[in-house]
Amino acid sequence: MSRLVYVLNGPNLNLLGKRQPHIYGHETLADVEADCRKLAGELGLELRFHQSNREYEIIDWVHEARETAGGIVINPAAFTHTSVAILDALNTFDAPVIEVHISNVHKREAFRHHSYVSLRADGVIAGLGTQGYQLALRRVAKLIDEKKAPAA
Ligand code: DQA
């Protein structure tokens, strides 16, 4: 299986570090990307790291990943709670999908408690801050490795 992993980020995450730091922390998305790239190197993964405020761009990256990638880590941000279209796109992707939220969405407003993306995600990480991305990458690497391992 391909060791290419897409890390996709939804709307407003470009403002990470400036946006409600009491909720999302002080790290910027560039910091998150740098940490992900470092870890990906250690895990032998190749990374495509993207952010968009536009739903269709996220869908297009999922379509691109279908052709090439061994996994997707996605923080769909507010699209988590609204986007059947992103769910439909992820349902066309055959490899592991891990959903990440920096904040604990279950401790927040009721509208954040429902996730369309969770209907497809193989795992969900919420409330572990930006460390959630690292843990998600480790999980994807493990699932890729297990797929490669010969049957016992
Ligand atoms: C978020 C949680 C979402 O509810 C919110 O809309 C975001 C970020 C998180 O990472 O905690 O933009 O996905």
Structural summary, described in words:
It catalyses: 3-dehydroquinate = 3-dehydroshikimate + H2O. Substrate binds at residues 75, 81, 88, 102-103, 112. GO terms for molecular function: 3-dehydroquinate dehydratase activity. The chain is of the alpha/beta class and 152 residues long. Helix 2 (29-43) packs parallel to helix 5 and helix 3 runs parallel beside helix 4 (84-90). Strands 2-1-3-4-5 form a five-stranded parallel beta sheet, with helices on both faces. It starts with a strand and ends with a helix. The longest helix is centred in the last third of the chain and has 18 residues, at 131-148. It has five helices and five strands; from the N terminus they run E-H-H-E-H-E-H-E-E-H. Helix 4 links the parallel strand 3 (71-75) and strand 4. It has a single domain (4-148), classed as Rossmann fold (3-Layer(aba) Sandwich), CATH 3.40.50.9100. 1,3,4-trihydroxy-5-OXO-cyclohexanecarboxylic acid binds next to loops.
Q: Which overall shape is indicated by the principal axes computed on the Cα atoms? A: globular
Mean pLDDT: 96
- Would you state the CATH class? Alpha Beta
Query: What's the CATH superfamily, by name?
Result: Dehydroquinase, class II
Give the beta-strand count.
5
- Low-confidence stretches at least 5 residues in length (pLDDT < 50)? none
Helix content: 25-40%
Topology as a string of helices (H) and strands (E)? EHHEHEHEEH
Strand portion: 15-25%
Instruction: Briefly note the CATH topology name.
Output: Rossmann fold
Count of discrete alpha- or pi-helical segments spanning 4 or more residues:
5
| Distinct bound molecules | 1,3,4-trihydroxy-5-OXO-cyclohexanecarboxylic acid
Ends apart, CA distance between termini: 18 Å
Radius of gyration (CA) equals 15 Å
Q: Which secondary-structure class do the elements indicate? A: alpha/beta
Biggest β-sheet: strands ordered side by side in the sheet = 2-1-3-4-5
Please give the domain count: 1
Tell me which CATH architecture applies here.
Answer: 3-Layer(aba) Sandwich
Largest sheet: 5 strands, parallel
Keywords: Amino-acid biosynthesis, Aromatic amino acid biosynthesis, Lyase
Protein name: 3-dehydroquinate dehydratase
Subunit structure: Homododecamer.
GO molecular function: 3-dehydroquinate dehydratase activity
